[in-house]
Amino acid sequence: MIEIVHLVKKFGDLVAVDDVTLTIPRGEFFAVLGPNAAGKTTTLKILTGLMNPTAGCARVCGFDVQGNPLEARRRLAYVPDFPFLYDKLTAREFFRFTGQLFGMADSQIETNAEGLIARFHLADFANLPLESLSHGTRQRVAIVSALLHDPEVFVIDEPMVGLDPQHARVVKDVLKERSLAGMTVLMSTHELSVAEEMADRIGIINDGKLVAVGSREELRKLSGASGALEEIFLTLTTNKSEA
Fold it and tell me: What is the layout of strands, in order, in the sheet containing 2-11?
């Protein structure tokens, strides 16, 4: 599970994350929405240990990300919006490298990798250098490498970037299946339709603050909007003084 407690992140006078508190239980699929520069990616980077908070804390499966980073990261996988890959490696070599980082046995790496390669339609690309692959194929490689060690918590930023409809469907199906099997998923996205389709609950961040959390129906009641998620989102993120 994920626990974020009174999280604050400042860059000089800019408050990027402003006292965010959130609990995501085991097996929940949670989507974060927000305008550009709302604080979504900064929150994810703090949760995954890539950035230190100014105040507050984040815990993964009970382990403080700053206080006990190795235990937290063993249970976590993170796919950023622009994943870093070692371009000179093939996909299979990259999977082996990733699995070894998590202390997996070679036999388990091979078993897990081959199953995921088949599921994500990567067999034709698995022995090619990563630098030769398209953006969408690299995105699938990044997701496979993150799923390889069967993480308890999966954090992904803009998962559908560069994916065609067929492979976007595969990603949706796999993440939902894993969530139903107990993996906690935290997804940040600008695609409202993806959040609406996939998420058990949705959180909306605006100006660094978590302004609303709930199911679509709960958000509709909170916002007073009667239409689709787009109307709910715009209602909750529009500065009333500008209306």
Answer: 14-24, 2-11, 55-60, 63-64
